[in-house]
Specification:
Layout lengths: L2 H13 L2 H8 L3 H15 L4 E4 L2 E4 L1 H26 L6 E7 L1 H6 L2 H10 L3 E7 L2 H9 L5 E5 L8 E16 L12 H5 L3 E3 L5 H12 L6 E4 L3 H9 L5 E4 L8 E3 L7 E10 L6 H18 L2
Parallel strand pairs: 3-4, 3-5, 7-8
Antiparallel strand pairs: 1-2, 5-11, 6-9, 6-10, 6-11
Helix pairs in contact: 1-2, 1-3, 1-4, 2-3
Length: 296
């Protein structure tokens, strides 16, 4: 079974479009159609229902999809293991992470890794942590650097790299910053800006207020902490941000005592899949960064 045909099949299955798949694969649409046709001839079954411009998987296609992923992963794994027999560290390293971690935690590590292992090709994509976890499970990435999920999955092996301290913040001229100390009751009387409720940070904050019998007045949600920070800075409301993001601008910590919040930032991998040498070396760089933080 030709792996190029399987790649074309998965591209169409994921995008729901022959033209989008062709664009993603840098091929012409007729070339993608031909690869799908050859695969259907080989398997003697239709893999897609084509109704106008709508493309959907048939029952045979749905059966093939996870098997195709496993075949392609096994091929990549075999190629990487053969490369690993040499003394140099080379090949591709596929990483997925969130925008926040990519902006504030990874740049120094990536720069050091690229300097030490110039023969490794880095493929980095940005997704929400929950989506990134699913991508690692699907075998699309070697490693994920994500916020720890509250949903456990035995197939995922997670290692905490950073403990991300969370702090309450507001604009420097916000009414909550006019006192030397404030309480959660006082904070709850003002509008909040927080990520969507599917994100761990918001669930942590909601649980804190719920335990105190308080309600949150969330006036706006967005997936991007940088956007939330900018809106907080111009006075739209208070919020909760990673401590690493709070410095040198209009966003300042609120004088709230005796409240400590944090979340884990983890390196995740599929437990049943062996790590390539580039992935092993990158994990070592992450651990070294974690040790450096701990010993400051």
């Amino acid at each position: 079974m030709d792996t190029q045909n399987l790649k074309a099949f998965l591209a169409v299955a994921e995008s729901g479009s022959f033209s989008k798949a062709a664009n993603d694969l840098h091929l012409t649409q007729p070339a993608v159609s031909k690869r799908i046709s050859l695969l259907e001839q080989q398997l003697d079954t239709l893999l897609f229902d084509r109704v106008g411009r709508q493309v959907s998987l048939t029952a045979s296609g749905r059966t093939l999809e996870p098997l195709a992923r496993n075949v392609l992963f096994a091929m990549r794994d075999a190629e990487q293991r053969i490369r690993d027999l040499g003394t140099s560290v080379s090949g591709q390293l596929r990483l997925v992470t969130s925008h926040h971690i990519g902006l504030h935690r990874l740049p120094v590590i990536l720069r050091r890794f690229a300097g030490r292992y110039p023969q490794v090709q880095l493929d980095i994509q940005f997704k929400d942590s929950e989506e990134a976890g699913q991508s690692v499970l699907a075998g699309e990435f070697d490693l994920g650097i994500v916020t720890r999920s509250t949903v456990a999955d035995d197939r995922i092996e997670a290692e905490c790299i950073w403990r991300d301290r969370l702090v309450f913040v507001a604009a420097a001229d916000h009414p909550l910053n006019r006192k030397d100390s404030i309480s959660l009751v006082e904070i709850s009387q003002h509008p909040a800006l927080l990520p969507d409720r599917k994100f761990l940070t918001t669930r942590i904050v909601e649980n804190l207020f719920r335990d105190k019998g308080l309600e949150l007045n969330i006036i706006m949600s967005t997936n991007y902490l940088e956007t939330i920070k900018a809106l907080i800075g111009v006075g739209y409301g208070w919020g909760v941000l990673p401590e690493i993001m709070v410095s040198g601008d209009n966003v300042v910590r609120l004088p709230l005592e005796r409240v400590k919040l944090s979340r884990n930032l983890d390196c995740i991998r599929h437990r049943e899949r062996s790590l390539s040498r580039p992935a092993e070396c990158f994990v070592a760089e992450l651990r070294a960064a974690d040790d450096a933080v701990k010993h400051r």
